[in-house]
Amino acid sequence: MDEIKISEVKSTEKTSGLQFFEGRVQAGFPSPAQGEYADSIDLNRALITNPAATFCARVMGDSMVDAGINEGDLLIIDRSLPPHDGSIAVCFIDGDFTVKRLSVRDEGLFLTPANAQFPEIPVTDDSNFQVWGVVSHIIKRV
């Protein structure tokens, strides 16, 4: 089972902004980008809606690679978002944390990996299970 390392999101009064390019960056043919810079962007404000209910976790393992979640990625997880069928969530099950897609079917609830090399995890009445939060953003190192 994949593991995650949980880190607390600390809210500070002091904000630091990065220079922000206001225009869109083309993934096809290049376009001119003159005079498009805004002052800055605060990534805490841009990525975190509810700081009191948000935490970060670093991914270990490769069970979610087909969903674009790779080892070392940083997840932003919001506990205030309601989990639903299809959500990618950080879950606690039987003593372990894992990140998986929630799959609600007639047979019950399953934690579904996004890698064919890993089996689904059924959530049974005997499982010690809790959804800790829904993944709202993935931050990657390139």
Task: Describe this entry's structure for a reader.
This protein is mainly beta and 142 residues long. Helices cover 4% and strands 44% of the residues. The chain contains one helix and ten strands. The protein has one helix at residues 43-47, and strands spanning 3-8, 18-21, 37-41, 54-60, 74-78, 88-93, 96-105, 108-112, 121-123, 129-139. The strands form two sheets. An eight-stranded antiparallel sheet has the order 1-4-5-10-6-7-8-9, with no helix packed on it. It starts with a strand and ends with a strand.
Q: Write down the secondary-structure element order.
A: EEEHEEEEEEE
| Number of E-state strands | 10
- Strand % is 35-45%
Gap from first CA to last CA: 25 Å
Shape: globular
Helix content: under 10%
Q: In terms of quaternary structure, what is this?
A: single chain
Q: If strands are numbered along the chain, what order do they take across the biggest sheet?
A: 1-4-5-10-6-7-8-9
Helical run tally: 1
Low-confidence stretches: none
Whole-angstrom Rg? 18 Å
